């Protein structure tokens, strides 16, 4: 592994998570950890939902963005930043940058979710449509950072993003210290790695169960093969899970401490949104509801346990929601 990745991994620790909490709690309100009786009865477990969809950008990623923006060096404040995104990461960074008065460029692939694009623009960020997918948008970010002097904020490998997101794990343990299993979606792995850091630091016996799209099983295949792999390009209805590979730092954190990875079909992913409405009366994006869908898929394994399903986000296209319901 490259030296700078090793240095980044070393910066993801419980001390930094506790520092991040002091920053995050000044800006963001603690999200609800809600027990739903009907959901628990249906699954035969004591089930709680961690509502990250209630945060200002409707996604857990704003925690990391707030933590990062509070600690950026002066040259970043002066020159501005650039990020590549399909949605939630860019929206989170744009929102947090606006709070600090930092100029933000957000690069999205062409034909990106127009509603997310509009939300990004509403923060005052500059939106740039470039490339056919996230990876081409990333390439353009590299060029823009090199040529214009912006700081390129890479969403997967920045320690301050991971430790900021990890504050959701602290909130879970503070409210439910005897939790036995936590379900968390995995795209590039940042959110799950953040939770793993807290679990390993507080109670390593808690099961961390990742959830991925079967069409894009990048982390699952890496975990199964014992090495980081890149899967072929594919389509999935869960934009937040459409990662062809895990990021280097999250992969290194997760590979030896995740308990299992549940793969969901496209229909199972869509059903998660319906489950969120039916049992919690909450609007979740497809990736955001993946933990609920996974809980139903592995209900026999969860029976009798105290379980937290993290609802990671609520940014869903209106036409998709209409079609689903």
Automatic annotation (TrEMBL):
All residue ranges annotated as the Tryptophan synthase beta chain-like PALP domain in the record: 27-313
SUPFAM superfamilies, per the entry: Tryptophan synthase beta subunit-like PLP-dependent enzymes
Keywords: Lyase, Pyridoxal phosphate
Taxonomic superkingdom: Bacteria
Any one GO molecular function term: L-serine ammonia-lyase activity
InterPro entries listed in its UniProt record: Ser/Thr_Dehydratase (IPR050147), TrpB-like_PALP (IPR001926), TrpB-like_PALP_sf (IPR036052)
Cofactor(s), by name: pyridoxal 5'-phosphate
Keyword Lyase belongs to the record: yes
GO biological process terms, semicolon-separated: isoleucine biosynthetic process; L-serine catabolic process; L-threonine catabolic process
Alphabetical list of Pfam families matching this protein: PALP
Protein name, UniProt field: Threonine dehydratase
Organism field: Desulfacinum hydrothermale DSM 13146
